[in-house]
């Protein structure tokens, strides 16, 4: 892979925009592509992430959906209010975003933390969803070693956002560290260098504390109560949870199905976009 590949290479094949909207008290940054007449699709990034998580997927999905990739509250260039970000904070931010956009029902896809938020959103607001994808999602495990690794790598990178610390944080996500391009490092480095980002990240990291994580995780009963038709997408090299975790979630959700991507880590949408886009769109569009 060309280490200098730019996000423009991902996005030059179609029209897109960057903008901000006011969602409750959160000024929210988004990337958007796709005609407003198409069904709405919202994409949610993982912990410490940002809308560019989906630059390799946005244009392809815009052929079929009015597609939004947002910076969740506390993340990216969205507002960073002064309170801990437990999962319901993100759920209510998402609700405010889709209310502001005037969407009654949406397609929803979340990676890692974004999948955790999507699952909780599906429990709280089932009538607002059409279909949902949980991509290497959180909310089902409590592994102290993984939690400490996420916390350590992330806080080191944001407290001292030089090239190498940010690069190490991103490489941990990937099955092949060479997947991390210079453009991705520079993008996240700029985000981590923002004033107030250290304090925001410390609040974001609350979900890596054992008791807080435990009360935010979904029980088996809650997974089984999700009504939305759901694809659980996992990878064979995810550093956060084994394949069996994804399979269990898919089996618990009454209208759940499971898909496995090979040779990918925690960012399959970025690591292998052709495979991800096909699996993702086939499910969202109900192709078999």
Task: Give a structural overview.
By secondary structure, the protein is of the alpha/beta class. The protein has a domain at 9-142 and 219-284: Rossmann fold (3-Layer(aba) Sandwich). Helix content is 41%, strand content 18%. The chain is built from 13 helices and 8 strands. An 8-stranded mixed β-sheet has the order 1-2-4-3-5-6-7-8, sandwiched between helices. Helix 3 (87-101) packs across helix 4 and helix 5 (144-159) runs antiparallel to helix 8 (197-204). The model has no long low-confidence stretch (mean pLDDT 96).
Short description:
The chain is α/β, with parallel strands linked by helices and 288 residues long. Helix content is 41%, strand content 18%. The two termini are 31 Å apart.
List keywords for this structure.
Rossmann fold, 8 strands
- CATH class of the domain at 9-142 and 219-284, anyone? Alpha Beta
Kindly report the CATH topology of the domain at 9-142 and 219-284. Answer: Rossmann fold
- The CATH architecture classification of the domain at 9-142 and 219-284 is 3-Layer(aba) Sandwich
Structural class: alpha/beta
Helix proportion range? 40-55%
- State Rg: 17 Å
Indicate the low-confidence ranges by residue numbers: none
Principal-axes geometry comes out as globular
| Number of alpha- plus pi-helical segments | 13
CATH superfamily label of the domain at 9-142 and 219-284: Alpha/Beta hydrolase fold, catalytic domain
Q: Kindly report how far apart the N and C termini lie.
A: 31 Å
Look at the structure and give the mean pLDDT: 96
